[in-house]
């Protein structure tokens, strides 16, 4: 099914043009645009991880969302800016310019359809800057449009209570957290018999530079890992995945409520 985990009554593509004309409060309805990726996730996970986790988390949140909060989920953008993974087969990468142009036209289309509040929810760590630029540029084009550039992992969640400090710092790709969520959402796609830990190599031994954060360096995945894994997927279990999914979904219910109540500061 196209909507998979998204409740059918919260899935915007299932509505006709006539349905939108009859929608009681299009301008006040929050539209979530999932921005995913198709890229390698080591030998044990499928390339669709970022899109699956994104849709799974948002879908579980929307299933819990109170009926009086108007919120619709658009169809996901499955391809993203994944060029850090281009040396690994299975990665399908858009340029930053293509993704930016695509997001701009999606936002313009939603505005033309009468929506005035949109959340671009990103599921891939390699493209938040593009999503942020798309949101700001749309705000310049449409002064009556409120746009939120968000990351699926940015809500409160319980990962730090499930995995150790090393995993939380370095397990950023195909590690324990993503593997656990895939075990909860799409276990048939996970090959735990192929799972192995690999930690980022060639990092600065000391000083202020870091792999990510305030003082990063530009890296490609093959600079840091041979397998494509950063972290320890062997620490993942279906039970941890279910607990993590539950906490992320609850965090998104809270955040969607805040987005619904938010009013753009007047000029």
The main β sheet shows up as: 4 strands, parallel
| CA-atom Rg in angstroms | 19 Å
Order of adjacent strands in the largest pleated sheet: 2-1-3-4
- Structural class based on helices, strands and sheet pairing: alpha/beta
Helix % is: 25-40%
The CATH first-level class comes to Alpha Beta
The total of helices stands at: 9
What is the count of distinct domains? Answer: 1
The oligomeric state of the chains shown is single chain
Quick rundown:
The protein is of the alpha/beta class.
Molecular structure report:
- This protein has helices at residues 17-22, 49-64, 96-112, 128-141, 159-162, 165-170, 176-185, 221-224, 238-261, and strands at 30-35, 71-73, 117-122, 146-151.
- Helix 2 (49-64) packs across helix 9 (238-261) and helix 7 (176-185) crosses helix 9 (238-261).
- It is globular, with a radius of gyration of 19 Å.
- The protein has one domain (8-261): Creatininase (Rossmann fold).
- It has a 4-stranded parallel β-sheet, sandwiched between helices.
- By secondary structure, it is an alpha/beta fold.
Task: From the structure above, extract its key features.
alpha/beta; 9 helices; 4 strands; globular
């Amino acid at each position: 099914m196209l909507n998979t985990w998204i409740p059918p009554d919260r899935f915007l593509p299932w509505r006709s043009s006539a349905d939108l004309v009859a929608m009681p409060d299009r301008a006040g309805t929050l539209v979530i645009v999932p921005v995913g990726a198709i890229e390698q996730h080591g030998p044990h996970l499928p390339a669709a991880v970022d899109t699956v986790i994104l849709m799974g988390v948002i879908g579980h949140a929307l299933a819990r969302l109170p009926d009086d909060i108007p919120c619709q989920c658009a169809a996901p953008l499955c391809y993203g800016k994944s060029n850090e993974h281009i040396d690994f087969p299975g990665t399908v990468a858009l340029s930053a310019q293509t993704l930016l142009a695509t997001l701009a036209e999606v936002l313009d289309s939603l505005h033309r359809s009468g929506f005035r509040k949109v959340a671009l929810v990103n599921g891939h760590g390699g493209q938040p800057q593009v999503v942020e630029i798309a949101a700001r540029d749309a705000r310049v084009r449409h002064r009556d449009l409120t746009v939120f550039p968000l990351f699926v992992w940015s809500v409160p969640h319980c990962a730090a209570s499930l995995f150790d400090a090393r995993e939380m710092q370095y397990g950023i790709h195909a590690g324990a957290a993503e593997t656990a969520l895939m075990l909860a959402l799409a276990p048939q796609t996970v090959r735990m018999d192929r799972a192995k830990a690999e930690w980022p190599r060639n990092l600065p031994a000391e000083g202020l530079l870091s792999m990510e954060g305030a003082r990063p360096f530009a890296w490609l995945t093959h600079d840091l890992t041979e397998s494509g894994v950063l972290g320890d997927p062997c620490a993942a279990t279906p039970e941890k995945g279910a607990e993590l999914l539950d906490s992320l979904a609850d965090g998104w219910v809270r955040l969607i409520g805040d987005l619904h109540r938010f009013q753009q500061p007047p000029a």
